Amino acid sequence: MRAPLSKTLPVAAALVAASMTAGYAQTAAPRWYKGNTHTHTLNSDGDSTPDEVVRWYREHRYDFLVLTDHNFLTAVDGLNALHGADERFLVIKGEEVTDRLGDKPLHINGLDVSTRVAPQGGTSVADILQRNVDAIRKAKGVPHINHPNFRWAITPAELQQVRNNKLLEIYNGHPQVNNAGGGGVPGMEEVWDAVLSSGAIVYGIAVDDAHTFKQPGNPDAAGPGRGWVSVRASRLEAGALLEAMERGEFYASSGVELTDYRASAREVAVTVKPTAFSKYRIQFIGKGGRVLSESLEPTATYQVKGDEGYVRARVIESNGRMAWGQPVVVAPREASHAGETALLLVALAGLGALLQWRTRPSA
Ligand SMILES: [Zn+2]
Ligand SMILES: [Zn+2]
């Protein structure tokens, strides 16, 4: 997807950004880059070579791909020499750090890690997650916590304890990861809302977790093309893309494309790129997963009131495909009203003093 910048940054950030870029006319305007951050090859339990895997994504019009084999850092320089192209396609190195506690699989992706990260182990689910997140950060990578409901391994309470992790899989295309929850266990969106409602800022990502490229059309195989992110970044480069993701400058999708998504402390706006056969429902969600408002049009804007805790958007397409816009934290406006009132009182007092002085009889 290619669309111009339009996500409204918070005003202060926008002013800083404007002042920083004012002298650099040639700086490219941010645009959208489509990518998948969770993919396997023959270097772990995938069914295809890195070359075949990369070829699939490039031929299906993705802009970037992260190869994340289990506990293996697949080399990407040769792949980029073959398939990479400036501003057209990029392969980023990565690893799925694959740990466990008993029979609970605990998998954390390390995107663009500088070196292979060995599973760190630990004494509890939260401890193991934290140790691996910390090890990935130490290796200069960006962590994301994978498929919490795979073998029902990770609860919302455990996710809430993890620090320095910004990205959480809320949709994973593997057919055994229980995205929707069940049997009393919450689905991934409910988990995400629970984590957000606890005060942690975590952005929701959608991924393929693709293993199988040789069985197209088999819904029971972990095929490619099911979950992706679209990132607004200034250039197709690992650092720029991952920094944008950790700022929430992206949306996640299981099949719905957006032409625009903007989220600021004042409003959240969604524009769907409609397809001829589909209808859409756009919902704005606040703290606790509460639906704040709903639109039946492919374009919708929500005006932030200030008491929502956070606001995010969800698009539901008539065949069950979804898109998820990243949340913006909102704060009550009382503080700023109090500030405005105080400023007004000071101004009135000053005006009163001035009038008193002007009307004083001259000696
Ligand atoms: Zn995994
Ligand atoms: Zn995986």
Molecular structure report:
The structure is a single chain. The chain has 363 residues and is of the alpha+beta class. 25% of the residues lie in helices and 28% in strands. The chain has eight helices and 17 strands. Strands 1, 2, 3, 4, 5, 6, 7, 8, 9, 12, 13, 15, 16 and 17 form a 14-stranded mixed beta sheet that branches. A three-stranded antiparallel beta sheet has the order 10-11-14, with no helix packed on it. One zinc ion binds next to loops.
N→C terminal distance: 76 Å
Q: How big is the Rg?
A: 23 Å
Count, helices? 8
Percent helix range: 25-40%
- Main sheet summary: 14 strands, mixed
Shape descriptor reads globular
Oligomer: single chain
The overall pLDDT, averaged over residues, is 89
* Share of residues in strands: 25-35%
Low-confidence sequence ranges:
1-25
Query: Bound compounds, please?
Result: zinc ion
* Class based on secondary structure composition and strand pairing: alpha+beta
Order of helical and strand elements: HEHEHEEHEHEHEEHEEEEEEEEEH
Number of strands: 17
Secondary structure elements and pairings:
Blueprint (H helix, E strand, L loop, with lengths): L10 H11 L9 E6 L13 H10 L4 E7 L6 H7 L6 E12 L2 E8 L13 H14 L3 E4 L10 H5 L6 E6 L15 H10 L5 E5 L20 E6 L4 H9 L3 E4 L4 E6 L3 E6 L7 E7 L3 E6 L3 E5 L6 E8 L4 E4 L2 E2 L4 H26 L4
Parallel strand pairs: 1-2, 2-3, 5-6, 6-7
Antiparallel strand pairs: 1-8, 3-4, 4-5, 8-9, 9-16, 10-11, 11-14, 12-13, 12-15, 15-16, 15-17
The chain binds zinc ion (2 copies).
